[in-house]
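Our consortium's second objective concerns turning raw sequence data into structural hypotheses that experimental partners can test. To show how far this objective has progressed, the report includes one record in full. It was chosen at random from the queue rather than selected for favorable results. The single chain below, 565 residues long, was entered without modification.
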Amino acid sequence: MSRLEFWSLWMLLVSVPLRTDSQLTITIGNKPLMIRPQRVYENLIKGVHDFFNNTCIILFHGSPNVIETEGLEDIDGLLGLQKYLSGTLNIRTAIMDFHTFKDKVGSTYYNIKRPLFVLLNDLDEIKEQFVLVSEWITMSYPTWLIFLRDGTRMEDFLADVYVPFDCILMTVQTDAEGNGEIIRDAYRISREGDLRWMEFGAWDQADGFRGPKLGLYQRRHDLEGSNLRVISIHDPPVSKILRNEYNETVGVGGFFGEVIQLLQEGMNCTFSYQESDKWGIQLPNGTWTGMIGMLMHDEAGLAATELMMTSDRLDVVKFTTPVYSTKSRVYIKRPDTTAVKWNAYLAPFACNVWNAIALMIVVTGISISTIDTIFSKKAIFHLPTTEASSTTVPETMFFVFGALCGQGMAMSSLDPIRVVHLSIHSMAVVVLAAYSAALISFLAIKTFAMPFTTMEGMLEDGSYRFAVVGESADYYFFQNTSDRVLTFMFDELLTGESNLPANYLDGLKRVCKEPKYAFMTLDNMAAVLQGKVDCILEPLDTMMQATIAMAVSVNSPYRGIIDSK
């Protein structure tokens, strides 16, 4: 590697602008490396960088044997461009050829965040290297900007390059008048498809850089009838495999069937369908089964069913925008026996009600005794009054309590005491009516006693079987958990089930048919399937939050357009 390339790469990695006082000329044979004036490169690269908010720039030239000579005429060329970008604009900028890029960076290019890759020319050397690099790099990861000469046809330069549907690759050519530059956006709908392009923007000295007003998938919104392979699983009612008279898979029904129908109309594409009998888990040897494995091996392009987003799956496939979020928990059959409610006769009365009644007894008892005492003193002084009562305060309180229980009270000729008696009997009627209504409500409502509400309780009970859908994210969750209780459940209960349910409906039917059978499912699935089973399902405490989405292969170019629809 030359000194120029070494220092450029080092500058990119440590984020220090490269400075040099040396003078050099860089050419490839007799052809100039830079096919545009330096100001065109500066303004166009800056405009694209600002439009996409790239973090760094790599300027690619074609020859691995760069000639470096001091004191020649062309002293500012490429280094002047780098100095402008890294020094004036403070954009991390490196210079290298594709050979150096593959040898020194290679698969670690993913560590470079949002890079802008600039091909400075369209000479044969850089074209050949670009074709080789396009075969191993993820083309949609960087933003590409390619400068073409006037006589170069874009279709010829990219003839052997697969530009995925989601790749942002722009070519720059001088316009017909020679006053500015035309920027075109190129892509292919499929690997075998023809190269397509549309005008991305333009640049001239007067108006500067002008980019598009629409987003990527507003511009690329049509797959033009291309076929997308869909894999699904029979898990009614959310995904149902549809077959023809020859038992061939011809479609997907249910909720996800409606979703992909909308996608088909919105993207203008066709679907071919396959069926899988398993969602997919990772085996001890690292391989994957079911739909996840088919996506990984490019046997399908889109998994259209309720796939749970998990960390292990995120490492091998890409998920679309989440369809919905729900909770995952264990369900059992509602017990038939009811609990004897010995406290039903006292339950209508809360502590504050008892306190209010007691306070009323004390207050009214004291009030009656006080009135008696006042009028007794009037009788002593020979004032006109009735004969005073000799009842004590505790006795009066007892009589008040009796009135609340529906008993009568001794009549009094004193009007104040009669008012108190009326208040006591009125309150007794209200309390009795409220008590009767509450008691009837408590006795009329049929309740049941859950044998347990947690996984620990189910283990302590010891009489229940436990299952999840076979080769699903739920199974992998128990298989790889670090929780002591869940690990014990997997070892003692789950591994003992030789015939795990094929889907959620199958599992919930077993809950109703088989004695003491517990099954883990999603809340929304249990709610939807409740009407399709013969018992009432009861949930235990929440196990985990679940996010459901469809999935595509890691390098699928269609995830963006699917999410946009």
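The partners drew two points from this record. The two ends are 47 Å apart (CA to CA). DSSP finds 19 helices and 20 strands in the chain. Both points have been shared with the crystallography group to help prioritize constructs.
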